[in-house]
Amino acid sequence: xxxxxxxxxxxxxxxxxxxxxxxxxxxxxxxxxxxxxxxxxxxxxxxxxxxxxxxxxxxxxxxxxxxxxxxxxxxxxxxxxxxxxxxxxxxxxxxxxxxxxxxxxxxxxxxxxxxxxxxxxxxxxxxxxxxxxxxxxxxxxxxxxxxxxxxxxxxxxxxxxxxxxxxxxxxxxxxxxxxxxxxxxxxxxxxxxxxxxxxxxxxxxxxxxxxxxxxxxxxxxxxxxxxxxxxxxxxxxxxxxxxxxxxxxxxxxxxxxxxxxxxxxxxxxxxxxxxxxxxxxxxxxxxxxxxxxxxxxxxxxxxxxxxxxxxxxxxxxxxxxxxxxxxxxxxxxxxxxxxxxxxxxxxxxxxxxxxxxxxxxxxxxxxxxxxxxxxxxxxxxxxxxxxxxxxxxxxx
Amino acid sequence: xxxxxxxxxxxxxxxxxxxxxxxxxxxxxxxxxxxxxxxxxxxxxxxxxxxxxxxxxxxxxxxxxxxxxxxxxxxxxxxxxxxxxxxxxxxxxxxxxxxxxxxxxxxxxxxxxxxxxxxxxxxxxxxxxxxxxxxxxxxxxxxxxxxxxxxxxxxxxxxxxxxxxxxxxxxxxxxxxxxxxxxxxxxxxxxxxxxxxxxxxxxxxxxxxxxxxxxxxxxxxxxxxxxxxxxxxxxxxxxxxxxxxxxxxxxxxxxxxxxxxxxxxxxxxxxxxxxxxxxxxxxxxxxxxxxx
Lengths: 396, 292
What we know:
The complex is a heterodimer of chains A (396) and B (292).
Chain A: H1 5-14, E1 22-25, H2 28-37, E2 43-47, E3 69-72, H3 75-87, E4 105-109, E5 115-124, E6 129-135, H4 142-148, E7 153-157, H5 166-176, H6 182-199, E8 202-212, E9 218-220, E10 223-227, H7 236-239, H8 249-256, E11 260-263, E12 268-272, H9 275-287, E13 294-297, H10 304-315, E14 322-329, H11 334-348, E15 354-360, H12 363-372, E16 377-380, H13 383-395
Helix pairs in contact in A: 1-6, 2-3, 5-6, 10-11, 11-12
Chain B: E1 10-14, H1 18-30, E2 33-38, E3 46-47, E4 50-53, H2 56-63, E5 67-70, H3 74-86, E6 91-94, H4 101-111, E7 118-120, E8 126-129, E9 133-136, E10 145-152, H5 156-167, E11 172-177, H6 188-197, E12 203-209, H7 214-225, E13 230-235, H8 259-268, E14 272-273, H9 280-291
Parallel strand pairs in B: 1-2, 1-5, 2-4, 5-6, 6-7, 10-11, 10-12, 12-13, 13-14
Antiparallel strand pairs in B: 3-4, 8-9, 8-11
């Protein structure tokens, strides 16, 4: 689960971080009102989308060359830019071609920047603990810094029970080169980042950049937060804030049926039980020269309704030229899944070739059901045969 | 021989709901010594032939349980694991999917204070020593006693691997599903150590996925410490970065965790890498032939 920048900042502020003054605008008029409220001082208009790369993004077809983050000093420009942002879709390197709709703009008082830092907390999987990362190289792609000069990133493991300790934050502040009054201010932001991570089950809690202004103010200028979906049961207040408008509609629809689905760009729809086998199926399709249209894990106990819904989602993609079902029946018996496939096949009305590979519990009964059904279903016994057949069918 | 579980393992099930009870029955039918279930408030009663206990401590004292199979739902799973560890259970197999990752971070630190206790999972199919003991949700009949050790992050892909091995006449010493979460209780290296030391294991098959760097670390360990033939497969070669492929751990993030990186590391450690999931068992055969 992701939050927008303004929501992440609200949480950080609640935990004691200093953030720039900002007002959320849902319309050009509201953006203008926000500008006036700040007394006509320069502002930054920030499109609120989950995708990264906003600043370098574009609004194709708008006739304007602004990106998703726009510094403005003139009153007239505020409503003009806000209109572009709210009326056109924002395309960034992370959104892909269709871009995303912008529903809200953060109108933020522009801050002069003397120095930028990076601050972020993630889980260190190898150690099994959260780690607070900080760098005096802020405002840039931290992954690039990590790859090229890892020594420029300071890392502090944080106890999930105790949280970030004062001495840890103090040491980081000194090692990052903060001085005087900036030290306690920077520590406050570090504690806020850590508390957000630990108290809200975040998977990423990030301030980038953290800035020092020419007057010595320390501010969380931009923020990002993503959360552990598995922990949302204990954070209903966060779940309520989720903005689903940027999610793929097919992925949302699948999630509602208990299916794990990820849209890809190929031509072969896949329906598999189990995440590892689903990935393996995508891989072997590619190995034999095809391209998977999706990842789809129906889980351990797929029933007729789930299979039907899965087929509908797959066939709703106009790029899909053939479908492969790959099931290893364990607890889910092959004859049960064969019946579900047949019922779904009839209900959905297949217009593209369907290849089915069943293995596991009651496989003979399952295969017989498919063979005796009289429907045009191509069967296969091994994964290699199934992949070759579906790749050929998609190209035919 | 085998690792971690055998015919003497005495197992209880934590979470005797519909699913936990269903799988307890299947494990018992396979031959596992299922000595009871935990169902707070129902201690002293019997469900489907399983004596129920209020606490794990009670099951350890009264039924001599030494191993636990956990089906407790996500919100209570971490607590269930810690209860088992506190009661002196030596092996905890957590099947539960969807445990919050910070809960597991805390569990891991708690278990560090219990050196005689091992956790497998969560979000895993379980562990099986064919012909002796099945703890988990895998179909028992596809397995066959033998001497290939299997380590896997996934469920059905493991069944695929086991089925291929069995079909080619290669039995398994023990198959461990370590699970698809970011913080597993037992990792690839833990299993490699055990299989390397097990006289009943002659070859090892390791099935990995995208996400994290555990396979890279396992590859380095194999290069240094494993003399037995090792074959491997990495699922997710076609997965795009930033998208979580079902398992909470299966995500390529921060420029690490890609299949290409993992396969390169495995090959550098002289591990036989299967190009596709259709040739998992064949890769084991090649790995064995190469060592001869």
